[in-house]
Prior knowledge:
2 domains; Immunoglobulin-like; mainly beta; 5-stranded antiparallel β-sheet; binds zinc ion
Amino acid sequence: xxxxxxxxxxxxxxxxxxxxxxxxxxxxxxxxxxxxxxxxxxxxxxxxxxxxxxxxxxxxxxxxxxxxxxxxxxxxxxxxxxxxxxxxxxxxxxxxxxxxxxxxxxxxxxxxxxxxxxxxxxxxxxxxxxxxxxxxxxxxxxxxxxxxxxxxxxxxxxxxxxxxxxxxxxxxxxxxxxxxxxxxxxxxxxxxxxxxxxxxxxxxxxxxxxxxxxxxxxxxxxxxxxxxxxxxxxxxxxxxxxxxxxxxxxxxxxxxxxxxxxxxxxxxxxxxxxxxxxxxxxxxxxxxxxxxxxxxxxxxxxxxxxxxxxxxxxxxxxxxxxxxxxxxxxxxxxxxxxxxxxxxxxxxxxxxxxxxxxxxxxxxxxxxxxxxxxxxxxxxxxxxxxxxxxxxxxx
Length: 395
Ligand SMILES: [Zn+2]
Ligand SMILES: [Zn+2]
């Protein structure tokens, strides 16, 4: 056998060889899981796909003091227009800077809640945060009325926990918040705004100050002539882009049912608003209220898209339990029935960076872990054509 660190996997009906550098899809999936079903995930041998409608579960837009007159609408980041994260990140010989010359269009990363994260610099080359263009969550709407962040969405830690990635860069490397994957304080960052973790994998960290998230793209990415990373999901607008509204401050933003919003702003001492909504067939109505009166604009846009029903096998009730959790020297495994136990073809343990640290054919009832670094691990059981994964913390 020449299979140094090569793993034979069985995804669906395909036999797949995965090299040691390939990230375990279960690791990526664990970051997006807290935000399902608004986010859907799936993967093949090359890419991990993230699907969403581009609208987060938090409020938006308030706090903006330099506004482009764009507002958030849904987008169909679904199917062939899903976000793509490479499962086999490759370190670049020369990391490309995320600055005012590169990656000025489109996303550089995708947040765990399915919202794209753009370069801190806008397509006009200014720091969007320092320029007052961002809301209280570090986002705003672009020219296609597409909501996206321009800095690291650190607040996602509140929902996903401090040791789960808040997103993934489009080069395939994880982005953490203010803690290391093992729960300790963030270690010193290199010029790329990350470092190699104790698991041997590179990761980035978000911070409150520039460069906020990614100094340079450590992994290989393809930048097209329009200065965006490809492949890249596309946001399709329904109305012409407007120009900045000098002096406007957004003070309120509220949903109108499930298919529209009211945005309130102040300008020259007056309080104005936009009330907008869409229907299932794709008719968009924007009502602009100003001291001069109401101005209604109608657009025939795009039909409402449906999120696919989850194809995620990992979220099904687990066929097995791993305990104790947290564990210190041994992880014990217990199957729900003896027949399930006989059907298990392999047991594997992955660290939080996706590296396989234990693997054995057939079922095992205990995995010795006292020699492993503390942190988050994933126990994976292969049974027929399905896999079952559960998270275990080593303390
Ligand atoms: Zn933007
Ligand atoms: Zn770190």
